[in-house]
Structures are given as C-alpha cells and as structure tokens.
Amino acid sequence: MAKKKLSADILDELHHVIVSRKGDNPEESHTARLFSKGVNKIAQKVGEEAVETVIEAVGGSKEELAAESADLLYHLLVLWEARGVKPSDVWEALEGRKGISGIAEKASRIKY
Ligand SMILES: N=c1c2ncn([C@@H]3O[C@H](COP(=O)(O)OP(=O)(O)OP(=O)(O)O)[C@@H](O)[C@H]3O)c2ncn1[C@@H]1O[C@H](COP(=O)(O)O)[C@@H](O)[C@H]1O
C-alpha cells in the first residue's frame, strides 16, 4: 500500500481532533484532561515540552528531537485552542512575514 504523504496539513487535522475533544471525559481523553485543567496548566506543559525539545536538540538523536517536537506541537495546538487562537491565525502571521528578513525586521524595532 502507498505510504500516505505527510505534510503540515496534519496540524489542521490534529486541531480538528483537539476541538472535538472539548467537554469529553478527562478519564478517556488526554486533550479533555488538559482542557479541564485550564490555560495555566496547559501553558506550563508547553514550557516543559519546549525544554524537553531543547534537551533533545543539543544531546539527543534526530528521532528523539522529532518525537519531542511532536509533543510540543500537540500541546501548543491545545494551548491555542484554550486561548481561542485558530491555527489559521498563526498561518496568517507567518504568511504576513514572507519576504521580510528577520534581521531587517529586528533592526526596524531598535529605538535609539
Ligand atoms: N499528539 C498527541 C499527543 N502527544 C503527546 N500526548 C500525550 O501527552 C502526555 C504527556 O505526558 P506527560 O507525562 O508529559 O504529561 P501528563 O500525563 O499530563 O503529566 P503531568 O505533566 O500532569 O504530570 C502523554 O499522555 C502523551 O500521550 C498526546 N496526546 C494526544 N495526541 C493527539 O491527540 C489525539 C486525541 O488524544 P486524546 O484526547 O487522548 O483522545 C490523539 O489521537 C493524538 O493524535
């Protein structure tokens, strides 16, 4: 069987699953459990997953870095939903930065 072609579309699919878990039983769904704990706890989890990603980036294998990155993206999507941010809001922000050098953008922010 042909292997499914994976792309960032999977983030939109995951977002739909995350939204569908709202109000579900926290005993049966990790996502529902996170929502039941509130934004502060979800934000804390994102911070933990970010640290774990950084640890794997400097000392782990590529596979471990990819796995921790997946954990981070999942928890970040849950955080966005908990704060009412849609993935498309973030995609728009990225789209708006296309063609703008990060270095030039930073220089434009420096005030003397
Ligand atoms: N991508 C993920 C995903 N990545 C990580 N995790 C879970 O995140 C948890 C992280 O474990 P930790 O011990 O760090 O955190 P914790 O259990 O909250 O413990 P504490 O930090 O509270 O002590 C694990 O239970 C992982 O299984 C995920 N849980 C769900 N998903 C996706 O979400 C979908 C829906 O999941 P449910 O909501 O559980 O049905 C799944 O089909 C997946 O596609």
TrEMBL record:
Q: Which reaction does it catalyse?
A: 1-(5-phospho-beta-D-ribosyl)-ATP + H2O = 1-(5-phospho-beta-D-ribosyl)-5'-AMP + diphosphate + H(+)
Q: In its UniProt record, which GO terms are filed under biological process? A: L-histidine biosynthetic process
Q: Which domain of life is it from?
A: Bacteria
Pathway(s) served: Amino-acid biosynthesis; L-histidine biosynthesis; L-histidine from 5-phospho-alpha-D-ribose 1-diphosphate: step 2/9
Q: Which Gene3D superfamilies match?
A: MazG-like
List GO molecular-function terms, semicolon-separated.
ATP binding; phosphoribosyl-ATP diphosphatase activity
What is the annotated localization of this protein?
Cytoplasm
Record keywords: Amino-acid biosynthesis included? yes
Q: Which GO terms describe its cellular component?
A: cytoplasm
EC assignment: the record states 3.6.1.31
The UniProt keyword set, sorted, is:
Amino-acid biosynthesis, ATP-binding, Cytoplasm, Histidine biosynthesis, Hydrolase, Nucleotide-binding
What family does this belong to?
A: Belongs to the PRA-PH family.
Q: What is this protein called?
A: Phosphoribosyl-ATP pyrophosphatase
Q: Which organism is it from?
A: Kiloniella spongiae
